[in-house]
Write a structure and sequence with these properties.
CATH architecture: 4-Layer Sandwich
Distance between the termini: 17 Å
Largest sheet: 7 strands, mixed
CATH class: Alpha Beta
Number of strands: 20
GO molecular function: transferase activity
Protein name: 7, 8-dihydropterin-6-methyl-4-(Beta-D-ribofuranosyl)-aminobenzene-5'-phosphate synthase
Number of domains: 1
Organism: Cytospora mali (Apple Valsa canker fungus)
CATH superfamily: Ribonuclease Z/Hydroxyacylglutathione hydrolase-like
Length: 348
């Protein structure tokens, strides 16, 4: 057992329910990551008798392939011996995107015990109400082996009234409001408010508190703003201090870090994970690195510092940006395994 009660697990399965990109064709170039390409991981439907298609036994329908959306939602199942725990990490930008893809990927929704929201941004919280409703409905089905217990929703207590950004011209653009605590409870979620380090699901997961800022070049989201209803004013909100990562300890490998957007900076995220891991090496980093809109100097600094941490698996998605993925592939061969919507990855 690592520090802070984090339990060593035998394997980690990651179903990507929502991410910006879809690629059911490309196979894995990282030998440490198992996933099927060439459409082999896509759901198949049986063909009816007398279908007139020769020896064909099944059909792949385009309506069964997940669709990309600007956001992130990962269904993470950890296994230790004969025991499993499943967490939903974020819920994507909208209810219809989550419902569509969770259905298409044929996720075992009844197995989801815990929803962790990485931070209050609509592209991560937008599907939470529908996710809660669908998960709880699945738990109530008589053919499930799980107890009909409502899903827990782990949230930072500092929900903003609204978030937005200021453009280079000075115009403030607002995002939609995140679902409220009351709305989540009314949908059937058991709300838990956490801003401190804590373990989840028998110690199979470790959820962070505030991520320390240490690197001089990772200064948050440029132009980030927050609206305060009580004062009627927009204020600077570039650090996104409510963002929290989740860590697993993979047996014989090390720390697997799940990050929503890395607004604290992906290097700050990784270094803090290593600190919490009490000597365990950094093995994998999964999620958004938020480098899509950054300058070449920050990209170069991030890559250099990431290489020094020596991860064996990098699964960038969502807000990482194509430039940084290309840089990883060039500088760290066979480490990259991009996060694609609709794909199931296995780390073991």
């Amino acid at each position: 057992m690592a520090s802070h009660g984090l339990v060593e697990v035998d394997s980690i399965e990651i179903k990507v329910i929502v991410d910006n990109e879809v690629d059911p064709i490309s196979p894995s170039n990282n030998p440490a990551v198992q996933y099927t390409g060439l459409f082999q991981g896509q759901p198949l439907d049986p063909l009816p008798p007398g279908h007139g298609r020769g020896d064909a036994k099944a059909e792949i329908k385009m309506e069964n392939i997940c669709c990309g959306a600007h956001g992130l939602s990962l269904m993470i199942t950890t296994t230790k011996g004969d025991k499993k725990h499943t967490m939903l990490f974020d819920t994507g930008p909208e209810e219809s995107a989550w419902e569509r893809n969770a259905t298409r990927i044929r996720a075992d929704m009844a197995s989801i015990e815990h929803i962790h929201l990485s931070h209050w941004h609509r592209d991560h919280s937008g599907g939470i109400l529908e996710a809660v409703r669908m998960i709880n409905a699945a738990k109530m089905q008589p053919d499930t082996n799980t107890k009909p217990q409502r899903v827990t929703v782990d949230l930072h207590p500092g929900r903003p009234d609204y978030r937005g950004m200021v453009t280079p011209t000075g115009m403030i653009v607002s995002l939609e409001a995140d679902p409220s605590f009351d709305e989540i409870e009314n949908a059937g979620g058991v709300v838990q408010k956490n801003d401190e380090l804590h373990t989840v699901l028998d110690g199979f997961f470790l959820a962070s508190g505030k991520i320390p800022r240490g690197t001089p070049y990772e200064v948050g989201i440029r132009g980030g703003m927050r609206f305060v209803k009580d004062t009627g004013a927009w204020i600077s909100d570039e650090e996104i201090v409510d963002e929290r990562m989740v860590i697993c300890n993979l047996k014989g490998k090390g720390l697997v870090v799940f990050t929503g957007c890395s607004h604290a900076g992906v290097i700050n995220v990784c270094r803090h994970a290593v600190e919490l891991g009490a000597g365990l090496p950094l093995y994998a980093v999964v999620g958004g690195f938020h480098l899509a809109d950054n300058n070449p100097e920050k990209l170069a600094n991030s890559l250099a510092d990431l290489k020094m941490l020596q991860p064996k698996v990098l699964m960038p998605g969502h807000c990482t940006g194509y430039k940084f993925k290309f840089m990883i592939e060039q500088a760290m061969p066979a480490v990259l395994a991009p996060s694609f919507c609709g794909t199931t990855y296995t780390l073991a």
